[in-house]
Amino acid sequence: MQLKIWNSYAIKETLKVFILFILCFYSLYVLIDFSLHMHAFQQNRATISALIAYYSYSFSYRAEILIPFALLLASIKVLSTMNANNEIVALLVAGVPLKKVMQPFLLLAIAFCALLYFNLEFFLPSHAIKLEQFEETYLHGVTNRAPTKVHVFPLPDDSTLVYQKYDFAQEAFFDAYWIRPNKEIWRAKYLFPHTEKPIGLFVDRLVHNSAGQIERTESLAEHLFSDLHIDEKLFIASVIPAEYQPISQLWHAYQNTSDQLNDREIQLVTTLFKKITLPLLALLVVVCSFPFCLNFERNKHPFALYSLAIFSLVALYTLLSATTILAENRIVHPAIAMWAPLFLCTSCFGWKYLKLR
């Protein structure tokens, strides 16, 4: 019964501090982001409900960073306070081993790991697309993005769809070229693929003349592409950015890849292993920080502990970003690129946990 009371107390106190850190961190982010984009919101008449939805989706998008940080600081705060109040000493005197003391914190870490995986699989794919739609509607021309490159979408009938970008706000391809096997080319400023039959706006028909040159033979304000068939699953796998796809979809794409990965496949595989790896940080921060909180020396330095923990987690995220670039450029395999930093961090900090009794 006493052990159950202790578990409940540790979980409750950790959740209190965790929620406090989450509210503080995310409120500060919302305040800074809103101040930066306030003019664009006013100019495009963004409603309060749209802003609430936007920042709700943003939390889902950034949860994989916010939750490990908040859990790290909450665990250190609760463990350090209990250590300072000699509550951990009392548990040890009562015959509770240190690894038993850690059980409630591990349960919380596992629960948050599962929550992050659930978010990546079910919430983030739709929320990320809605974020894109909001930004293209209310922040168009404000966000600083790299120039858009040309994208190629092969179709099952051996034709090819070449487009500049996919407009999430209008759910349409922008500046699209449908290249058919008979050398006929259709150009549309906007091509809507999700209607019963794809519809193009401001359409030009281009053909090869007898001299081998491409000439425009027809211009239409609107055209129904009855022969253009776009499979929904193929569309998601080929058009939707890899970071917006659920883990199950990425895993399916990974199983269908060949030995020689193209640019699209290497990005999908890298994103897959990254999404598998990042939620594990919620468990890693608790395991690695726990032994450092059990400092029974007279002169304790909590500021140094917080500083070391925050610096280590920031360094780990930076290292993961660097290894992601290496994986996308085929310098190392994506699995090694993602798991090597975790193994390095566990080797540096996690060995103390193995020595606990």
UniProtKB/TrEMBL annotation:
<dbReference type="InterPro" id="IPR005495">
    <property type="entry name" value="LptG/LptF_permease"/>
</dbReference>
<keyword id="KW-0812">Transmembrane</keyword>
<feature type="transmembrane region" description="Helical">
    <location>
        <begin position="303"/>
        <end position="325"/>
    </location>
</feature>
<feature type="transmembrane region" description="Helical">
    <location>
        <begin position="105"/>
        <end position="124"/>
    </location>
</feature>
<keyword id="KW-0472">Membrane</keyword>
<keyword id="KW-1003">Cell membrane</keyword>
<keyword id="KW-1133">Transmembrane helix</keyword>
<feature type="transmembrane region" description="Helical">
    <location>
        <begin position="331"/>
        <end position="354"/>
    </location>
</feature>
<protein>
    <submittedName>
        <fullName>LptF/LptG family permease</fullName>
    </submittedName>
</protein>
<feature type="transmembrane region" description="Helical">
    <location>
        <begin position="276"/>
        <end position="296"/>
    </location>
</feature>
<feature type="transmembrane region" description="Helical">
    <location>
        <begin position="14"/>
        <end position="32"/>
    </location>
</feature>
<dbReference type="Pfam" id="PF03739">
    <property type="entry name" value="LptF_LptG"/>
</dbReference>
